[in-house]
Design brief:
This protein is an alpha/beta fold. The protein has twelve helices and 15 strands. It has helices at about 20-30, 40-70, 75-80, 85-95, 125-130, 135-145, 160-170, 185-195, 270-275, 280-285, 300-310, 330-335; strands at about 100, 105-110, 115-120, 150-155, 175-180, 205, 210, 215-220, 235-240, 240-250, 260-265, 290-295, 315-320, 325, 340-345. It starts with 19 loop residues before the first helix and ends in a 6-residue tail after the last strand.
Amino acid sequence: MPKDNPPLPMELDEAPRAGVVPRFLSWLFATTPRQSRGAIHGTHEELFRMRGEIAVLRATMEAVRAEVGRRDIATLEELLRTGNRREIEALIRDRTQTVPLPDGSVLCRVLGRFKMFVDAADVGIAPHLLLDGYWQYWVTEFVCRNVARGETAYDVGAIYGYWSLVLADLVGSEGRVVALEANPWLHWLLRRNVHVNGLGRIITTERVAAAEAPHATMNVPALLVGPQNGRFASAFTTEASRTHCTAPAKALQDIEPGSVDFLRIGATAQPDRVVAGLGGLLDRSPGLRIMLDFDANLCAEAPALLEALSARYPLRFVDGDSLAKPCTVEDVLARRRVTTLYLSRIEPR
């Protein structure tokens, strides 16, 4: 029996009662003077007590199964309905599995249901996906509460597509997700992750960098390059101890003509240039919600970027309790130089 489900205490003035089966047999065969098949009232009372004890036994067995057994996770909505963060994280960890592959990737199970290929040499996000089965669960929970079915979402700097898969699960077949990743090695893994999960009809991938304007080619920093003798090795060059690759670039306002409901901008993107290319998209998307992985060290002008964003949207950050809380430009620069910002005129859930 689980430690947090102790047996119900007995009344002090009652003697210990026999088990359900012995009492039923005793009643059936009338083995004691007090019991009689004609005592209808006593029979109903005894059966009522038996039903109650059987219900307690069933509940105890369910608790034991939950404690020692495995439970499949069907959708992210089921995770939210559970409501207990520790229990959810334990369930996800219980279903993690990893399979190293000869192409320099590792296949793992994420959020209890998605299959994902990640870079075996990655020491950033991959260890969390491999061992825990999730990435920044407090942010994941926040996203799940604030994205609805049928919406259109962009994932900029998608890396392996963790957020792309989460968003696809939330918007469903009625919605759309556009995932942008400029790194050719990561874009290849991203495409594999989309198709191995059967989400090619919902998620569209592009190997493109987000910038302030279109560029035929643009240098993009590259932290992950895959195996040295891999298929994309020639796509990367190193100068002054920094590795980069080239990719075409687009402004986000030029990706598609319609409006967008949810926009995630990852830390691997260059936030100043990404935000500079939002203009028309902001104008035609009044209900837009932006989740920005803000790192002041990656911004050319972090104060100017924050001032421009705060002039248009209330400035909030996603705290460890999965709630978006107000903050100021000074607070972000002084105390939260690396944080997840939430920008929208719509109150977060």
